[in-house]
Amino acid sequence: MQYNLKVMRMKVGFVLAASAVALLAPRQAGAQLFPFSKQDLLDYTAQNPFDRFPDGRPKVPDSMLDRAREMSSEEVWAVLPGKKFENQYADGFQVLHPGKTMVGRAFTVQFMPLRPDVDSVVQAKVRANGLPRLKNQTALDMLQPGDVLVVDLFGKKVNGTIVGDNLFYYTMKATHAGGLVVDGSIRDLDGISGMDMPAYFRHADPTPIGQVMLTGINVPVRIGEVTVMPGDLVLGDREGVYFIPPQAVKDVLDRADEIHVHDEWTRKKFDEGRYKSSEIYPSPADPALKQEYQEYLKKRLEEIQAGRKE
Amino acid sequence: MQYNLKVMRMKVGFVLAASAVALLAPRQAGAQLFPFSKQDLLDYTAQNPFDRFPDGRPKVPDSMLDRAREMSSEEVWAVLPGKKFENQYADGFQVLHPGKTMVGRAFTVQFMPLRPDVDSVVQAKVRANGLPRLKNQTALDMLQPGDVLVVDLFGKKVNGTIVGDNLFYYTMKATHAGGLVVDGSIRDLDGISGMDMPAYFRHADPTPIGQVMLTGINVPVRIGEVTVMPGDLVLGDREGVYFIPPQAVKDVLDRADEIHVHDEWTRKKFDEGRYKSSEIYPSPADPALKQEYQEYLKKRLEEIQAGRKE
Amino acid sequence: MQYNLKVMRMKVGFVLAASAVALLAPRQAGAQLFPFSKQDLLDYTAQNPFDRFPDGRPKVPDSMLDRAREMSSEEVWAVLPGKKFENQYADGFQVLHPGKTMVGRAFTVQFMPLRPDVDSVVQAKVRANGLPRLKNQTALDMLQPGDVLVVDLFGKKVNGTIVGDNLFYYTMKATHAGGLVVDGSIRDLDGISGMDMPAYFRHADPTPIGQVMLTGINVPVRIGEVTVMPGDLVLGDREGVYFIPPQAVKDVLDRADEIHVHDEWTRKKFDEGRYKSSEIYPSPADPALKQEYQEYLKKRLEEIQAGRKE
Amino acid sequence: MQYNLKVMRMKVGFVLAASAVALLAPRQAGAQLFPFSKQDLLDYTAQNPFDRFPDGRPKVPDSMLDRAREMSSEEVWAVLPGKKFENQYADGFQVLHPGKTMVGRAFTVQFMPLRPDVDSVVQAKVRANGLPRLKNQTALDMLQPGDVLVVDLFGKKVNGTIVGDNLFYYTMKATHAGGLVVDGSIRDLDGISGMDMPAYFRHADPTPIGQVMLTGINVPVRIGEVTVMPGDLVLGDREGVYFIPPQAVKDVLDRADEIHVHDEWTRKKFDEGRYKSSEIYPSPADPALKQEYQEYLKKRLEEIQAGRKE
Amino acid sequence: MQYNLKVMRMKVGFVLAASAVALLAPRQAGAQLFPFSKQDLLDYTAQNPFDRFPDGRPKVPDSMLDRAREMSSEEVWAVLPGKKFENQYADGFQVLHPGKTMVGRAFTVQFMPLRPDVDSVVQAKVRANGLPRLKNQTALDMLQPGDVLVVDLFGKKVNGTIVGDNLFYYTMKATHAGGLVVDGSIRDLDGISGMDMPAYFRHADPTPIGQVMLTGINVPVRIGEVTVMPGDLVLGDREGVYFIPPQAVKDVLDRADEIHVHDEWTRKKFDEGRYKSSEIYPSPADPALKQEYQEYLKKRLEEIQAGRKE
Amino acid sequence: MQYNLKVMRMKVGFVLAASAVALLAPRQAGAQLFPFSKQDLLDYTAQNPFDRFPDGRPKVPDSMLDRAREMSSEEVWAVLPGKKFENQYADGFQVLHPGKTMVGRAFTVQFMPLRPDVDSVVQAKVRANGLPRLKNQTALDMLQPGDVLVVDLFGKKVNGTIVGDNLFYYTMKATHAGGLVVDGSIRDLDGISGMDMPAYFRHADPTPIGQVMLTGINVPVRIGEVTVMPGDLVLGDREGVYFIPPQAVKDVLDRADEIHVHDEWTRKKFDEGRYKSSEIYPSPADPALKQEYQEYLKKRLEEIQAGRKE
Predict the structure, then answer these.
(1) In the structure, what pLDDT confidence band is assigned to residue D31 with cuts at 50, 70 and 90?
(2) Interface mutation target, options F278, F283, F293, chain A, most CBs of A under 10 Å
(3) Which end of chain B is more exposed for a tag (fewer CB within 10 A), N or C?
(4) Which chain A residue has its CA at the smallest distance from B43's CA?
(5) What is the reported pLDDT for E251?
(6) B chain contacts of residue A112, beta-carbon cutoff 8 Å
(7) Between C and D, how many CB-CB pairs are < 8 A?
(8) d(CA C276, CA B7)
(9) Res E29 pLDDT > 60
């Protein structure tokens, strides 16, 4: 029932000093309102086919993150409902950089409205473990390259600001520009706008975070109508954000390859100007065209896979 | 780390059969997504000055529930912010019986959007403990007289219906008309309207509950901008619902007595028709009136307390 | 392609004078923007198992209207989705008399935003047929006992008022208090509140109807997310309004009988105070109880049917 | 440039003590942020045909207030737009007593968001005039029988509460149950619900008034999309609130008499069951019926006027 | 009563194969829920001063489309209300390419919520005519160069997606980048964002179209508070969309020329820095300036017309 | 009690002709509904430490406007609440040029819903003073370089348009691109988008201004939940707009300098990649780092000040 928080060295020159490692050393159970242990995480993500972080969080491989950067929401939709995942999409966010797809592994944080009686117990437990006060930076300090910070701040605007420009900058460095999804708000929108990390938020507000207590790090959280699990693959585009369970990632990516080829071929046909839309889309009725498409699909998928092996 | 669910016999002829008691026998840890043990509950409600239920939930005494029936939201407001409790009030509900004050002890239930991978683990754990499928009735079956059922269904309308008229009827019987607060919806509004239990809900909808999973019973839940703890005193009036931590209940009730006397005296004075509002309210400037009020207050508080002892 | 508008004599002393009958005599095709003929109506409601009005509109029998007065939305929900009717429920209305169930046959009217070029053609066609100007009263004058007036005014508030108190009074008389559903507004809410006919409306506003043109009488109309067909059985309760295709009415009514008996038995059991909710609801697990219920159901259904024959 | 605040004795036993009169004695210019003098008020309400209060506010006669109690919004609408008053109606309020028409003379109060630099000047000016701190009760203390308190609190919910139950009670006594319209909120809804004065408000909230400053008493204020002048006749029904300039009151009342007779006659005709709605309403086409109506109208108007003289 | 769907050859290499032409051959009456025939269309657009498509739809000339590209909403406003067209503007859309004016001829499509009983009749009629299933692509396949696709999907978000990126691409090719207005949603916003056709939509969503039925092609449709007729000139700018009846197009364009010259002259004057705004705008009071403006207007209009003739 | 409207010569070639000066010559009291005199303005802005315009409006120095261009909302937040200014921020606007900070002195204008009886008095008073009709251009003509036009149009969309492109252009010229904040709407968004002046507005609409009356120029106005005083420093960024009282400007600017240096240093440290966020931010715990920061701060502030003196 411990979080092993030995922080991985980051590739791009983000080396933790000894003191920082110590700060994030094994956390005792109960240091957060919802005691969700490493074993709990292992149990509830048992279908994860990939490696895990030391704390048990599923680790979708970097190569799959790279492939995911070509995807859009519709391609995830093409797979998940068929697997009975009907509640994995959240939208209604302000999108910081509409043209920039967000891809990463979910690092989840949960806040609840402040109750001094509850928070004082939380903080006492933290102190008893020799750790500093639990607050938003406690979570930020644990971020890893490739993470997307996913924060439940229950849509709070005033005082619901998970980061301002300085901590956004830190998050960008620590996650290697992974991204941020907050069901709440951010500060310093002007400063943040110049930073090259995707972010999805409900509001911007000049106030700092307040009247809330941190109740869980890497526990299941709710964002809109989605239950997000730590380690989900997070995909954000202009429309919204999909949270993809690790065990579904490969199927989603493979299906996306097919859809990309299908789009290529479809538009090529439309470019020829000889067909009505229904003759070609969603699939050609004419047997010769069907045959042509199947061959094209096969060839292109082979090329794509070959290109990936290089 | 067990819920002792030995169900209390209810006063009004609601006696549990043996099979029912068995059904609710000691639950193993992990039978819900958020493992919040009896010890957790004791820790986080350590300031509770009252008895507790066998499962650790604070039990505000019946006599205080009775006194609370005379209160309104404003009287709670007069005390809680001064104790740094600034986030204990939720509103924006539809109120079933506007003229009927709701008073009871919070029995909390949390749902999250359905994820089949997570829910299958939850249900497997439940089965491993020899218990039936975890669902909304699992919680209802544990309700006690004097409880208010407090449900986080994250505002869901369609398929976010915690009860229809049959289960509303059961809840009324089991809680002795304690009440219901759901950040979600209910079914059968027509049928429910004729039943004499207070209820606060976001919507009514003809669909049954669905696409959700039960993730916690008597865990901390969020209703609007309030963190509700199991055992909080729930007070609902025409405006909204206050969740009062047990340790603050006595101060709130005592302050309410004073406010009631102050209201009595103030209106008596206004009835005399000799004063402008600011001569009397919020407190009289005239020394003689001030004296008169202080004497009236003292006398009436004594009468009220005497009346309670009878 | 004609509306046969021979108006039925009403039971409660609402006898049309000769001039009125003339006014409503056979209307030529094209007298409304959407030319939806009697044959169209017959074609699109071909599954109707009941008689029809002279104009082709399905006529759910009076006896079924009477049975429907005992129903609520949930009982309709129990049948329609199973028949692939997933879009027959509309809500979000202001309900004039929350305790009074609305039951009747849909008489549909469609308005669209005024375009003088289109409306002048409509009115010219009407004039060419020797009829007076097409307006909201043209439709009202055609109402029959047992009708519910269903009006698409596209949610318009200001100038979207289908009736004020005088025409509401007329509608009540003409339909024998059938009812009104308007996706738009009404006037004279104070006056209307004292009249004993159910009504569902989006807004109340002091302005009269304006800036709209009548584009169809007894054509398919859209109310919220429902396509309403003339002759649908309209059922309104505290929650919202269901539009039931005639061919589904009998199944819905029969299912409602069972649900009523099930509710009776369930609450009787809950009243005994010996069972947890899950032991009884939705159906008893115990074989003896199951048997008991089946016998109760059989007996009560027979009683109900017998009662209807008397 | 003074408010003469000599308060009239109230009929129902509401006699002001000497001290109260002193409190409200002539106010110096500048004691409020918007210096709107008695002369300003006289200038901007120059068309008022009636008496005035000592402070210059138009005083629609009591007899007209009595007649207005029979009116509804639609009857005001029938007159005002024709006089180019197109912005005199506000709605979207919660209505305390939907069945009780509100009638009275507008007593206006304006608040703005608190700025300590501005408010300190206001209060210094007040002090310099020997008056107590300017606050909501300053205005309440000036209320007269027959007044409706009209308050611009810019829709503020939290801390936008003009009165709680004690000051509502005072207002009811002082205005002889005239009424309250607040573009803001009220407290103690439970307590207020039992008091027999009409009220229109945006929200109810348990917080007291705060973070605002009183900037004007009996100055022009904005309620929704209406500019309300002190002394306007305020009429509230189930739909919303009309603010009628004094110079239009007589025409509105006379027109309402006609509409009432027209409604009587129309429904009488509908009750006969011999006519379609368009044969009778809005006016009969048949010359004999037209004649019948004209005679009925004449006779009834005479009866009504005779009844008033008694 | 037929649609002649002989599709025009498109300039930019969009040549229809024989099979496509066959597909779109004469449609029988009744193949859609609202039987709106060619004669109906001719009747209701009788004031159209221009040529028509073979199916009867008015065809505003290409030269006027070109002139319209310089216009903005305000310039349409300057003319239409004066012609009693007060309901021709819709806004509240998401605008795909805010800097790109949309101009084209309205090609209208109407959907309604799915009713299987009605849709099965529609599809049976279609089959009886030897045509394939009626669906969104049926309409897309009929699009012509210069068309703007105008779709009533009653604001539906989930499953209200008229096109994704492939069909958006097809629409762009087929209309020569005419445009899209949908009171509903689109899919694949990321993919669509890179395509150079204007589009106005309510939402973006990853789901495909569903739970709707196509009820009319080139029938009158409602978009917001506008009745759109097939063949209307559609003009979209950053603010919203105007639907201009063909008979008003010339006046709107001519008035726009004047406004453009007026803007030129006004700003030139403001650039001189010698005038207050009211000395110049809306029209100069000084006779010399008025004269100067009139001469400038005359000269520039001549230049503009000369430029067009080249 | 006069506005001295002698207009300053503008730097960029905006020289007023004699006639214009005459037009704006001393205005008599009462020429607007709210008579707020020069003395009133002096009284209510008594804490202003800077020069004033001839009409009494505080004039924050140009040098401070220049410094303010580097600020953002958060930096204002860091100072104002500490000075008890808790209501100086408004948001929810559409922002014309999100990347362009708006800085200027508040020039306030207030409109109210039109009442012909009141407006006719206003206009009669204006005429009696030999001035032209009071309208939106009356205010525009008084604008000075460095002003931000702040307009209360009570959120009105249709007919709530303070300027179209021509008057926006004029405002840009007259204020030297100071800016516009309107709690209402603007016209000609397409034309305005190309003009290089910041603007904050609620809506864009094609209609011109109407059904309103100008009730005050350079009086206190309310924008959202802010009381804006003439002469406030207006600061707009991507999030919203702050209105800073003149007496707080220097402290805000000085604090912003420190925050800028703090940001510089913090990110420099984060760039080193050796620290967790909490080791550096909000302030370093390590004494050596603390020392390092203090020295950096001192040095950089000196550099900044030196740079300003050049």
Answers:
(1) low
(2) F278
(3) C
(4) A121
(5) 98
(6) 220, 222, 227
(7) 81
(8) 11
(9) no
Cβ neighbour number for residue B111 with a 10 Å cutoff: 27
Beta strands in A84-204 (DSSP E): 89-91, 94-95, 102-113, 147-152, 180-186, 199-204
Helices A287-309 and A246-272 sit at what angle, rounded to 10 degrees? 130
pLDDT tens digit sequence for C94-141: 999 999 999 999 999 999 999 999 999 999 998 998 888 999 999 999
Band (pLDDT 50/70/90 cuts) for residue F310 is: confident
Q: Residue C31 — pLDDT band, cuts 50, 70, 90?
A: low
Residue of F nearest to E77 (CA): F206
Mean pLDDT in residue range B61-65: 98
**Mean pLDDT, to the nearest integer, of B74-87?**
97
Question: Is C87 close to E46, i.e. CB distance below 8 A?
Answer: no
DSSP letter at E17 equals: P
pTM above 0.90, yes or no: yes
Q: Please confirm whether the linkage preceding D282 is cis (ω < 30° from 0).
A: yes
For residue C282, whether the previous peptide bond is cis, meaning omega lies within 30 degrees of 0, is: yes
The pair of three-digit structure tokens given for residue E15, joined into one six-digit string: 């040549």
Residue E11 clears pLDDT 50, i.e. is over it: no
> How many other CB atoms are there within 10 angstroms of residue B32's CB atom?
24
Report pLDDT for C5: 28
- How far apart CA E9 and CA E14 sit, in angstroms, is 7
Model pLDDT for residues A245-256, shown as the tens digit of each residue: 999 999 999 999
Name the minimum distance, in Å, from the CA of E246 to any CA of chain A.
Answer: 28
pLDDT value at E68 more than 90:
yes
Length of chain A, please? 310
Inspect the interface and report whether the beta carbons of F191 and E72 lie closer than 8 Å.
yes
E77: which chain F residues are within 8 Å (Cβ-Cβ)? 206-207
The whole-number average pLDDT for the span A183-209 is 97
For the cut 60, the answer to whether the pLDDT of residue C283 exceeds it is yes
Q: Cβ F222–D43 below 8 Å, yes or no? A: no
Pick from C28, C22, C40, C30: which is nearest to C2 by CA?
C28
pLDDT band at residue B34 under the 50/70/90 scheme:
confident
**Cβ atoms of A227 and B113 closer than 8 Å:** yes
Residue B134 · residue B122 · CB < 8 Å: yes
Chain B residues within 8 angstroms (CB to CB) of chain D: 72-74, 76-77, 89, 91, 98-99, 101, 237-240, 242, 263, 266-267, 270-271, 273-279, 281
Q: What are phi and psi of F42, to 5 degrees?
A: -60, -45
* For residue F116, cis peptide bond before it (omega within 30 degrees of 0): no
Which residue in chain B is spatially nearest to A29 when comparing CA positions? B40
- In this structure, are strands A199-204 and A94-95 parallel, antiparallel, or unpaired? antiparallel
Residues of chain A whose beta carbon is less than 8 angstroms from a beta carbon of chain F are: 10, 12-17, 19-20, 23-24, 132, 137-138, 140-141, 164-167, 169-170, 173-174, 187-191, 193, 204-207
Q: Give strand pairing partners of A136.
A: none
Neighbours of chain F (3+ CB pairs under 8 A): A, D, E
Cα–Cα distance, C107 to C156 (Å, whole number): 20
C140-159 confidence digits (pLDDT tens) = 999 999 999 999 999 999 99
Which stretches of chain B are DSSP H helices? 18-23, 38-44, 62-68, 73-77, 116-128, 136-140, 165-175, 189-193, 246-272, 277-280, 287-309
Helix, strand, coil fractions of chain A, as percent rounded to 5 = 35, 20, 40
- CA E37/CA E182 separation, integer angstroms: 23
Question: Quick one: pLDDT at residue A12?
Answer: 30
The encoded tokens of residue D250 equal 């007589």
* Closest by CA position to F243, among listed F164, F152, F157, F141: F152
Contact C132, D278 (CB under 8 A): yes
ipTM of this predicted structure: 0.90
